[in-house]
Input
Amino acid sequence: MVNGGLPTRVADALTAMRTLLGENDALAYLVNMAPRLVELHRLLRPTGSLCLHCDPTMSHYLKVMIDAIFDPRNFRNEITWQRTQSKGLSTKRPSNSHDVILAYTKTDDATWNDDAAFLAYDEDALDVKTDEKYASRDETGRRCQLTSLINPDTDRPNLTYEFLGVTRVWRWTRERMEQAYKDGLVVQTSPGRVPRLKRYLDEQRGKPIGDVWTDITPLNSRAAERLGYTTQKPLALLARILAISSKEGDVVLDPFCGCGTTVDAAQRIGRRWIGVDITYIAIDLIEKRLIHTYGPSIKDTHEVSGIPRDLGAAQALFDRNPFDFERWAVSRVGAQPNEKQVGDRGIDGVARFPLGGSDFARVLVSVKGARSLNPSMVRDLGGTVEAQEATLGVLITQHETHKGDA
Output
């Protein structure tokens, strides 16, 4: 056994899942995730954390799997994120409106940023308890409350003295008390009353973040950051997770980076990052997202691996996924690939370039990765250019054409 019996624990967990679930898609998903979670555990530093997002359908099975890998004692919390508002269409069960984030650490030395675990108070949306505590306002209109300055430890001779006619065991030294009084922070509401400390709401750390997150707005069809990626998460969700569990300069790894929200969040708050995805669509989308957000110079700050650099790699990409090949080829000529790659009538992307003034030329791009080429492909592209009143068309082929193709 290696690593304290880790392979045996994982095998035992999968065997139990097979007995419970049978051989189906759920088990296949767990079998697929198991080696990836083992590798993430191996790569994670002692100060690192794992946050895994999943819907409630599989989250409890994944938790058992992660317990076997990370040790149940390193489980930190199950965070519930309200993904959407409840719908009134469910007639047999409550509507499904939340996702789960499983939080684990590798050791007890994991990074935890306490300051990031508080939300600033919104004076227009205070909870009842906070609203009642800070019901008073000073002469400038700032919310405040008066709190005790009496020391709970009654056996403190050095802190026992008379102040404003009142003798008590105080929390502060006389010098500190007098300075706070001069600064207007110690208040005696009437002669003979026990002086109290004025605490301002806007100087407090805020409301501690719990394990139910309802304050992060889900992405709707009109959200400005929406990219059309079906599993896209709000930037604020990932930024909060990274802010709490990492510090500036740390490396963030997202092995299923999709449309790059984790990458964007890491870049935004000063973390280094590595994003991995199996599809070129994701990599191309992330590159464009970063350039759009941070400008063209962002390309100088990171390196993209796994993108075809020669004909052999291009052929391998086509053999693996023709749609990814089309998207890659379109992006190589500076065009924008189609969001949908079916029913496109042979047009795989569109490019635009300025003609002068406010006029732009529209270029239709068609990609043919297969070896079979024929004149009708050129005629079809020409007909589409004419029908759509585009400026010109570009045909990209993976293989050379021959006389017999014309």
